[in-house]
C-alpha cells in the first residue's frame, strides 16, 4: 500500500468520524435544540398575530408625452434613437414636467402636508378622520399605552409669525411626513412610459384612498405647471377685453349722440368732430375685436396645454393583506431558535 492510498483511507476515516460525531451531537443535544427552535417558533407565531396588518393599493397611469411635428419628420432617426435608449419625446418636453420627475413631486413636503389633511374612511372603525389622525393613532403601539413616552414634545414654533417665509414643522409632523414618504412610492418605467403609484396603509380603504389622492395631486400639479402661463394670459386678456368693450361702447355712444344732435348742420367744425369721433369709434372697435380674438385663442391654448393621463390600472381596494408574511416570520423565528440551540450546545460542550 503506497502513501496515496493510506492518505485516502485516513481522510475517509476522518469523514466517518466527523459524521458520527455530528450524529452523536444531535442525539445528545437534540432536545435542547428542539426546545429552542419550538420556543422561538411559538414566539414567531405570537409576533405574526400581533404585528400590524398592512394593505397595499396601486394604480398605473400612462402620461401624455409631448409629440411635435418635428419628431414626426425625423422618421428613421427617431426609431434609431429609440434603439439606442434615447427618448426624443422626453428631450422635447421643455415646457412640461418630465415624467421622470414625478417621483420627486410625490416625495415633496407640500404633498405630505396636503395628504395629511385629507379625510379618509377607516373600514376597521367605520369612521372618517384625517390621515394625520389615523397615522397618529396607528403609530401608538401597545407598549406606549403601558409605558407612556415622557419625552417632551415640541409644541411651540420657532417662527410663529412666518417672517422667514419658510415651512416649519413640529416633530410630530416631520415624523408623519417621513412615514408617508416610505408608504407612498411612485415609479416611472422609462421604456414603457408607465407610472405606478403604490400606497401601503394599515387599512385597505385608507390605502386605496391615499393612492387615489396621490393620483389627483399629481394630475393637478402637472396641469397647473403646464397651464399656469396660459391661464395668466387668459386672466390678463379677460380684463383687457372688459376695458376695451367699455371703451368701444362709450365711443359708439358718443358718435351716435353727436350725429343725433347735428343731423341738419353742415358746418365744417361739426364734420371734423364727427370724423374724430368716428376714428375713435373704429379704433376702439378694432381694439375690442383683436383682444376678443386673442382672448378666445388663449382659452383654446389652455385646453391644448392641459395634459392627459390615461389610467391603465384603476385604484382598487385590496382584499388581502400584504404584510405581515406570517409563514415566513414563523419559519424565520424557528430557524433562529435552532441556530441558538446549536450554538448553546456547542459552547457547553467546549466549556
TrEMBL record:
Q: Which GO terms describe its cellular component?
A: plasma membrane
Identify the keywords attached in UniProt to this record, alphabetized: Coiled coil, Membrane, Transmembrane, Transmembrane helix
Residues in Tyrosine-protein kinase G-rich domain copies: 276-350
Q: Does the keyword Ubl conjugation apply?
A: no
One GO MF term, please?
Answer: protein tyrosine kinase activity
Q: Transmembrane stretches, by residue range? A: 33-50, 328-347
Matches recorded under Pfam families: GNVR
Q: Which domain of life is it from?
A: Bacteria
Name residues in a coiled coil.
234-268
Q: Which InterPro entries match?
A: Bact_polysacc_biosynth/exp, GNVR
Its protein name is: Uncharacterized protein involved in exopolysaccharide biosynthesis
Lineage, highest ranks first: Bacteria, Pseudomonadati, Bacteroidota, Cytophagia, Cytophagales
Amino acid at each position: 500500500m503506497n502513501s496515496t492510498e493510506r492518505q485516502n483511507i485516513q481522510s475517509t476515516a476522518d469523514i466517518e468520524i466527523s459524521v458520527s460525531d455530528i450524529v452523536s451531537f444531535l442525539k445528545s443535544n437534540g432536545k435542547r435544540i428542539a426546545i429552542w427552535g419550538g420556543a422561538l417558533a411559538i414566539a414567531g407565531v405570537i409576533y405574526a398575530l400581533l404585528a400590524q396588518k398592512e394593505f397595499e393599493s396601486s394604480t398605473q397611469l400612462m402620461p401624455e408625452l409631448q409629440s411635435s411635428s418635428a419628431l414626426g419628420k425625423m422618421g428613421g432617426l427617431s426609431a434609431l434613437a429609440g434603439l439606442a435608449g434615447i427618448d426624443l419625446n422626453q428631450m422635447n418636453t421643455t415646457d412640461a414636467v418630465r415624467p421622470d420627475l414625478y417621483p420627486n413631486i410625490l416625495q415633496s413636503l407640500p404633498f405630505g402636508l396636503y395628504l395629511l389633511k385629507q379625510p379618509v374612511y377607516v373600514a376597521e372603525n367605520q369612521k372618517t378622520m384625517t390621515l394625520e389622525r389615523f397615522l397618529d393613532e396607528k403609530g401608538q403601539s401597545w407598549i406606549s399605552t403601558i409605558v407612556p413616552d415622557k419625552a417632551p414634545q415640541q409644541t411651540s414654533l420657532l417662527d410663529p409669525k412666518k417672517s422667514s417665509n419658510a415651512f416649519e414643522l413640529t416633530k410630530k409632523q416631520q415624523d408623519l411626513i417621513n412615514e408617508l414618504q416610505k408608504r407612498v412610492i411612485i415609479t416611472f418605467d422609462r421604456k414603457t412610459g408607465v407610472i405606478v403609484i403604490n400606497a401601503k396603509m394599515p387599512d385597505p380603504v385608507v390605502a386605496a384612498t391615499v393612492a387615489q389622492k396621490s393620483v389627483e395631486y399629481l394630475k393637478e400639479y402637472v396641469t397647473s405647471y403646464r397651464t399656469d402661463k396660459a391661464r395668466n394670459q387668459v386672466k390678463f386678456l379677460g380684463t383687457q377685453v372688459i376695458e376695451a368693450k367699455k371703451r368701444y361702447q362709450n365711443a359708439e355712444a358718443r358718435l351716435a349722440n353727436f350725429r343725433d344732435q347735428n343731423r341738419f348742420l353742415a358746418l365744417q367744425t361739426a364734420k371734423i368732430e364727427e370724423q374724430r369721433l368716428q376714428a375713435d369709434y373704429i379704433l376702439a372697435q378694432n381694439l375690442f375685436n383683436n383682444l376678443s380674438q386673442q382672448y378666445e385663442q388663449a382659452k383654446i391654448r389652455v385646453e391644448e396645454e392641459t395634459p392627459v393621463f390615461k389610467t391603465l390600472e384603476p385604484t382598487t381596494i385590496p382584499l388581502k393583506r400584504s404584510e405581515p408574511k406570517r409563514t415566513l416570520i414563523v419559519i424565520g423565528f424557528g430557524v433562529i431558535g435552532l441556530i441558538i440551540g446549536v450554538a448553546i450546545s456547542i459552547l457547553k460542550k467546549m466549556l
